[in-house]
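Run log // design_07
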């Protein structure tokens, strides 16, 4: 038996036909294909929802299929810089992440420097009483909802943006931001070549506010975004700096993105790429993605799809968006009818759009390697199932690469 298999493998024609398709090879002429990785994938051992053996298989799949990695949590402020002061940084897991990427020759993305979520309270704390008008800040799950949102959220601390105590001044907060960015970006200079500098600063909904009413906005003012990009550029002038947000398939949110980026460009802020998270659902078609990419591309910057997953849960068709405060509601209950086929159709359509816009789209990152480790596990949103078997959506994605090369 062994002999037959190895003879087949030695015959060039058979080998090509039988070789399993690989995402990173299929799209190599267009864009990098990456995945978010959790801590256990880069340190080894048992993981959240995974035994050590399963984790090893997840890592094997990651190395086989993907050529780029993003850290699912370990470079967020809450994790990498939980305390104030000189010994306030915990770099161990982030170092493992970066070393994993270097030893496997993958492109390494840093996620994320400035965000309203997963940021510890000390960052915003000071001696200034909050203004009476600002008591109703960004809706935040704070302590209570972190507990009800399940272990995924509770595990990563309480800093979800609900700080209500006395505040830092604008100058203090900018100084903390600058120190944080310089220390973290500086440490991985030349290794992490792409950074999500500001994450999710745009307001949701159809209101007239462009920016989310976060503590960053309230304390610093709208120029906190430009400042973050300036500090990151000082720390590593060669890094590609992204603005990253979700919901950009929605025309209203997209208008806000375009307004924000134009403002930053007018200020000459060093924004080098647009990150579109793309936490979407099975009703996202080729047309919707094509329209989104067409409009975003008018900004003249590369587009990176940064956190792709396609929610198949019924609840995820009603609750769109990707605010982590509401995540529990978006992936629960039953899947939509015919979920495998709908997922395959959606993935085929959006990859057709990515390939069509290949002059702009330079990176596509899935938010996880398989359904079991996904933050929306119940929505079965990825190309591989919990046993790392490719789903029909995987074939649909590979088919788009073949179609584009046969044209
Ligand atoms: C999510 C992680 O996947 C979870 O493990 C964590 O509990 C919450 O954050 N937008 C982002 C990502 O920019 O950082 C979020 O990641 C998903 C939404």
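design_07 sequence
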């Amino acid at each position: 038996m062994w002999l037959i298999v190895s003879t087949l493998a030695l015959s060039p024609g058979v080998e090509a036909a039988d070789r399993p398709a690989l995402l990173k090879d299929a799209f190599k002429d267009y864009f990098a294909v990456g995945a978010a990785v959790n801590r256990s994938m880069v340190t080894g051992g048992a993981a959240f929802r995974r035994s050590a053996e399963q984790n090893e298989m997840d890592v094997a799949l990651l190395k086989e299929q993907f050529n780029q990695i993003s850290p699912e949590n370990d470079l967020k402020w809450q994790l990498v810089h939980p305390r104030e002061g000189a010994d306030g940084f915990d770099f161990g897991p982030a170092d493992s992440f970066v070393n994993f990427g270097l030893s496997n020759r993958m492109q390494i993305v840093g996620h994320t420097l400035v965000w309203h979520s997963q940021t510890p309270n000390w960052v915003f704390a000071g001696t200034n009483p909050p203004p009476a008008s600002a008591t109703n800040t960004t809706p935040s799950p704070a302590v209570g909802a972190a507990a009800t949102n399940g272990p995924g959220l509770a595990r990563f601390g309480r800093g979800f943006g609900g700080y209500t105590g006395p505040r830092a001044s604008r100058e203090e907060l900018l100084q903390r931001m600058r120190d944080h960015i310089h220390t973290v970006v500086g440490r991985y200079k030349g290794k992490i070549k792409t950074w999500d500098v500001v994450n999710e600063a745009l307001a949701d909904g159809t209101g007239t506010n462009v920016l989310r009413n976060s503590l960053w906005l309230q304390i610093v003012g709208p120029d906190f975004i430009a400042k973050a990009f300036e500090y990151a550029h000082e720390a590593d002038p060669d890094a590609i700096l992204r603005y990253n947000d979700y919901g950009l398939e929605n025309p209203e949110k997209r208008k806000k993105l375009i307004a924000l980026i134009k403002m930053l460009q007018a200020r000459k802020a060093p924004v080098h790429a647009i990150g579109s998270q793309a936490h979407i659902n099975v009703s996202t078609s080729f047309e919707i993605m094509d329209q989104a990419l067409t409009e975003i591309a008018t900004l003249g910057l590369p587009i990176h799809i940064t956190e792709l997953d396609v929610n198949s849960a019924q609840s995820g068709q009603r609750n769109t968006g990707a605010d982590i405060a509401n995540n529990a509601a978006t992936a629960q209950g039953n899947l939509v009818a015919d979920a495998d086929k709908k997922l395959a159709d959606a993935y085929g359509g959006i990859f057709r759009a990515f390939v069509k816009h290949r002059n702009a789209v330079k990176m596509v990152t899935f938010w996880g390697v398989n359904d079991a480790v996904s933050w929306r596990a119940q929505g079965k949103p990825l190309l591989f199932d919990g046993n790392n078997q490719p789903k029909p959506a995987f074939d649909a994605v590979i088919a788009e690469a073949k179609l584009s090369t046969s044209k």
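Residues 384 and 390 are 5 Å apart (CA to CA).
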